[in-house]
């Protein structure tokens, strides 16, 4: 065998994977995870919807309802309408359809639990629509991730045999497809929270389905808190002495359905006093779990070797690899492609399919297409594939045991920052990941960590509200006349992080000393941007450079990175980009790129533009996305009466001044030792190697963000006059 990877497999033979019992359900952890909610009412014994107690029984037996034929690989977007209807009727949830509709009709709030792939997200909205339960209103289905919202909407449109954007649509930040006839709308939780600002009762929605509630994302928590008050108002529920809660007549009542892939429903049930809890039995085949006998230092390399071990030694079946983020996905995809091309001809081909949250709509559709003959699909995904999206055909899972987690390091002085760190997953995630191998038949899960490491993992993740920056949410709540301190939340954030977000908003001028929202704050909240950037846009009206600031902020808000990094071609990259470099730093460098691209776009064809981007190591997708974002920001400007065409021409100062207003908290001063000290806050930082100012000794800087690897780096850096620091941040804080 000539393949290098084959010479050093991670495990020499199958036995060297420390084979454990199918611990997916058999070990003690599973029991802890599936604690039976106390307030459960099961359905009738014949029903296929089961109470969690029964559910546990069926899970322990490790077999799905074997009578049900699996739709398998045929379940793709390209299927014909008839086939699709057949697939729909074979989903585990279909047998409980009538019972579900009955329960939804009778209850204002339902908590629906069920294993991934049982059909909750795609079917429940259609049942509501087809049974007339949604009345004339819209059914909202919320998702914590953009890519889940867009791809599920596409799937349901196909199932309904309609064009995406007609009766089935979606709405995610900077991208939407819906029309006045839309009845089922998949949307990110952030978008529906934003809608509260213009319609605090969400009156156009007759049903709000909060999906993936177990993830407890920040926006989902805010939505759930608001739904509780909205239900009271729209369903006319009053506390009557001696009688408890009494429901009066309501002209536009709301139904809420909370859906989750894990079984800890108790908390949701308690929060929505008296919610009905239902369980839909999924389909789960046995999964053999293998733990590596020792910890892996390089999980990307370990995943690659394990993949080829499966590919050469195991029968056909697709492989799903869980990785923490886009960078690892891209690098592993490249390596797998290189090595698989060197395999002898008698081997199956390998088709790689990346899947991560920031992918543009439609970019991942090949993942759902049937695997071509004589080919093994290798899906490289983040935790998006854990519960949000079910990919058919997976028989093998490789679990690196890592994920990326956002965590805010709050500082009392207001100088805190968000970190995005790679960390160990939780036991709950590990079990979900393993479960993905057993949906269509017996499967295998290769954990690149030891059994002891698994046991040492936290049981489940901490809700995001307890570990993330709250300033953007607090600003939105203030617009609604609400406050984090008084809102009835499922979990309260830490005091110091609330305090820190108040300081941030005060320094940006969005709140006054009485913590009341200012007119600047209201304008800021109207932009779908982080407060630092919406503040910069508003400042740009003072300095006459709205056009330039919108150009920069649009690129910074795109999900793809503008600059393609290539460690092998570092010199070529730096030479190709030389002409965009601006002495003031990264922000104006971005502006130079945008301007150059706009010029090219006028004269070049599509392929010419593409080639130009390739030559300059620029990611055209980021530029195209930024164009869309800018269009939307311009619309917001128009609504606020801001002229977005105002330009400062070739002048640099106004742009830097405007950005300085937004990044007032992100200023740092050069120290004698070459490090930078935050003007507000205590952190000592270095300029990130990717910055144009990296090796310059600039006395004072502003930066977009701090990233924490082995030390704290400032990324997206521009030079500012030292006097700025006095004008903005510190003086204000002291005054
Ligand atoms: O929400 P839950 O995990 O219970 O299941 P679902 O997302 O409604 O998925 C039901 C079925 O639809 C699964 O078999 C998926 O593979 C399939 N599906 C698909 O084929 N293509 C999509 N874009 C989305 C779902
Ligand atoms: Mg789902």
From TrEMBL:
GO molecular function, one term: RNA helicase activity
EC number(s) stated in the UniProt entry for this protein: 3.6.4.13
Lipoprotein keyword on record: no
UniProt entry keywords in alphabetical sequence: ATP-binding, Helicase, Hydrolase, Nucleotide-binding
Superkingdom field: Eukaryota
Reactions performed catalytically: ATP + H2O = ADP + phosphate + H(+)
Domain Helicase ATP-binding span(s) in chain numbering: 101-281
Alphabetized PANTHER family for the sequence: ATP-DEPENDENT RNA HELICASE, ATP-DEPENDENT RNA HELICASE DHX33
Name of the protein in its database record: RNA helicase
Organism taxonomic ancestry: Eukaryota, Fungi, Dikarya, Basidiomycota, Agaricomycotina
């Amino acid at each position: 065998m000539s393949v290098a990877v084959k010479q050093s497999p991670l495990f020499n033979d199958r036995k060297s994977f420390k084979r454990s019992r199918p611990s997916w359900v058999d070990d003690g952890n599973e029991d802890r995870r599936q604690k039976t909610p106390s307030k459960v009412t099961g359905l009738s014994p014949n029903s296929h919807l089961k109470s969690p107690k029964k559910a546990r029984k069926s899970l322990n037996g490790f077999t799905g309802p074997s009578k049900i034929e699996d739709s398998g690989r045929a379940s793709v977007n390209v299927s014909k309408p008839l086939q699709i209807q057949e697939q729909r009727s074979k989903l585990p949830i279909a047998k409980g359809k009538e019972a579900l509709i009955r329960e939804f009709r009778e209850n204002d709030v339902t908590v629906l639990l069920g294993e991934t792939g049982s059909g909750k997200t795609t079917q429940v909205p259609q049942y509501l629509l087809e049974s007339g339960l949604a009345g004339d209103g819209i059914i909202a289905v919320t998702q914590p991730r953009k890519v889940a919202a867009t791809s599920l909407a596409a799937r349901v449109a196909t199932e309904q045999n309609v064009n995406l954007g007609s009766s089935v649509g979606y709405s995610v930040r900077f991208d939407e497809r819906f029309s006045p006839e839309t009845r089922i709308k998949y949307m990110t939780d952030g978008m529906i929270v934003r809608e509260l600002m213009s319609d605090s009762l969400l009156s156009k929605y007759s049903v709000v389905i909060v999906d993936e509630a177990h993830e407890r994302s920040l926006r989902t928590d805010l939505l759930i808190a608001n739904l509780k008050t909205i239900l009271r108002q729209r369903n006319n529920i009053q506390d009557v002495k001696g009688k408890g809660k009494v429901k009066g007549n309501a002209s536009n009542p709301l139904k809420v359905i909370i859906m989750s892939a894990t079984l800890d429903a108790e908390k949701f049930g308690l929060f929505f006093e008296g919610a009905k809890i239902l369980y839909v039995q999924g389909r789960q085949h046995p999964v053999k779990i293998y733990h590596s006998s020792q910890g892996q230092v390089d999980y990307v390399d370990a995943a690659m070797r394990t993949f080829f071990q499966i590919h050469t030694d195991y029968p056909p079946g697709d492989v799903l690899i869980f990785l923490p983020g886009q960078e690892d996905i891209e690098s592993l995809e490249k390596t797998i492609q290189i090595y698989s091309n060197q395999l002898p001809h008698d081997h199956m081909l390998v088709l790689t399919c990346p899947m991560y949250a920031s992918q543009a709509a439609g970019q991942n559709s090949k993942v759902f297409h049937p695997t071509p003959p004589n080919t093994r699909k290798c899906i490289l995904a983040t935790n998006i594939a854990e519960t949000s999206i079910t990919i058919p055909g997976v028989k093998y899972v490789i679990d690196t045991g890592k994920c990326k987690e956002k965590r805010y390091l709050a500082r009392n002085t207001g100088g805190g920052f968000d970190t995005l760190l790679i960390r160990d997953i939780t036991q709950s995630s590990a079990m979900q990941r393993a479960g993905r191998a057993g949906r269509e038949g017996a499967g295998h899960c290769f954990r690149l960590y030891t059994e002891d490491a698994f046991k040492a993992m936290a049981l489940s993740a901490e809700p995001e509200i307890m570990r993330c920056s709250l300033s953007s949410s607090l600003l939105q709540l203030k617009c609604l006349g609400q406050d984090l301190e008084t809102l009835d939340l499922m979990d309260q954030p830490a005091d110091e992080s609330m305090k820190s977000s108040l300081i941030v908003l005060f320094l940006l001028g969005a709140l006054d000393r009485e913590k009341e929202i200012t007119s600047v704050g209201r304008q800021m909240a109207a932009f779908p941007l982080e407060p630092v950037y919406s503040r910069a846009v508003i400042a740009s009206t003072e300095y006459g450079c709205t056009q330039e600031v919108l150009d920069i902020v649009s690129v910074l808000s795109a999900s793809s990175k503008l600059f393609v990094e290539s460690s092998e071609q570092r010199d070529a990259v730096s030479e190709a980009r030389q002409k965009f470099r601006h002495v003031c730093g990264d922000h104006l460098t971005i502006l130079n790129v945008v301007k150059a691209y706009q010029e090219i776009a006028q004269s070049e064809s599509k392929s010419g533009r593409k080639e130009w981007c390739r030559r300059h190591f620029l990611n055209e997708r980021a530029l195209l996305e930024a164009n869309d974002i800018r269009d939307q920001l311009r619309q917001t400007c128009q609504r606020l009466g801001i002229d977005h065409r105002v330009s400062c021409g070739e002048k640099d100062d106004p742009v830097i001044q405007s950005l300085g207003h937004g990044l007032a908290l992100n200023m740092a001063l050069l120290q004698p030792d070459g490090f930078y000290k935050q003007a507000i806050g205590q952190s000592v930082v270095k300029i990130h190697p990717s910055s144009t100012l990296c090796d310059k000794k600039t006395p004072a800087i502003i930066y977009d963000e701090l990233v924490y690897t082995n030390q704290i780096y400032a990324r997206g850096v521009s030079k500012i006059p030292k006097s700025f620091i006095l004008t903005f941040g510190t003086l204000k804080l002291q005054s």
